[in-house]
Design goal:
Order of helices and strands: HHHHHEHEH
Strand content: under 5%
Largest sheet: 2 strands, antiparallel
Distance between the termini: 34 Å
Number of helices: 7
Helix content: over 70%
Shape: globular
Structural class: mainly alpha
């Protein structure tokens, strides 16, 4: 079976599968990694490889595949450097890789989710996946800011630690959902600006999503009638 046939058969289903993978990475692997369980770092690498394959099948774009492979290579190099001697370099490699993964996945998922046609269960889940991916993108950006300016955040020190991924995900979602517990706060102007952008997206996305999905469904019904 060709790649094109696989994409036509499993394209929408992959949205749901990849959503499950992201949820596991964020809310299972990251917390367990924060507890110091090394084997879950290996599990994270395996899940990243699965993401590369999933994005390839969904997009069929050579550029997307190259981007994901570059990100995967950065993750592997960062993991090797972390084992040898943890430093800011491997931390930035991880952040850069997840920024590439996030942007590539966001573009791919947005095209699949909001393409013309019937609004299926998988495409609704794909909209959730896009929301989660945005949190990943901003977590990577916060990492860059935190490594450049150590005092950019109060209540969170951006350093090479097993706990960092869990802390960044927590802060990113607290910002995206405008929960704002107050235990972690941005102090640097650029960090505050990024938080503003993420919070605005978090507020506007649900309304925009609903309007777009309703429009797609009505357009599909008009074609069938």
């Amino acid at each position: 079976m060709s790649v094109e046939q696989l994409r036509q058969r499993w394209g929408d289903s992959l949205l749901t599968v990849l959503t499950g993978v992201i949820l596991v990475m964020m809310f299972v692997v990251a917390p367990l990694q924060a507890l110091g369980l090394f084997e879950f770092q290996v599990f994270e690498l395996l899940l990243a490889i699965f993401l590369v394959g999933g994005v390839f099948l969904m997009s069929g774009s050579a550029l997307a595949v190259v981007a994901m492979l570059v990100a995967l290579a950065m993750i592997v190099v960062g993991a090797i450097l972390r084992i040898r001697s943890p430093s800011i370099l491997d931390l930035n490699l991880f952040a850069g890789s997840w920024l590439i993964v996030g942007v590539t996945m966001a573009v791919t998922v947005a095209r699949a989710t909001f393409a013309p046609g019937r609004v299926t269960y998988h495409r609704v889940i794909g909209a959730v996946l896009l929301y989660l991916t945005v949190a990943v993108i901003f977590a990577a950006l916060y990492t860059f800011i935190g490594t450049l300016v150590p005092s950019a955040f109060s209540g969170m020190k951006v350093e090479d630690s097993p706990k960092l991924a869990s802390q960044l995900i927590y802060f990113s979602f607290a910002t995206l959902t405008t929960t704002g517990y107050g235990d972690v706060a941005p102090l640097h102007p650029i960090a505050r600006s990024l938080c503003n952008v993420e919070a605005i997206f978090g507020q506007l996305y649900p309304a925009t999503l609903l309007a777009r999905l309703v429009t797609l469904e009505l357009a599909h019904r008009d074609q069938d009638s």
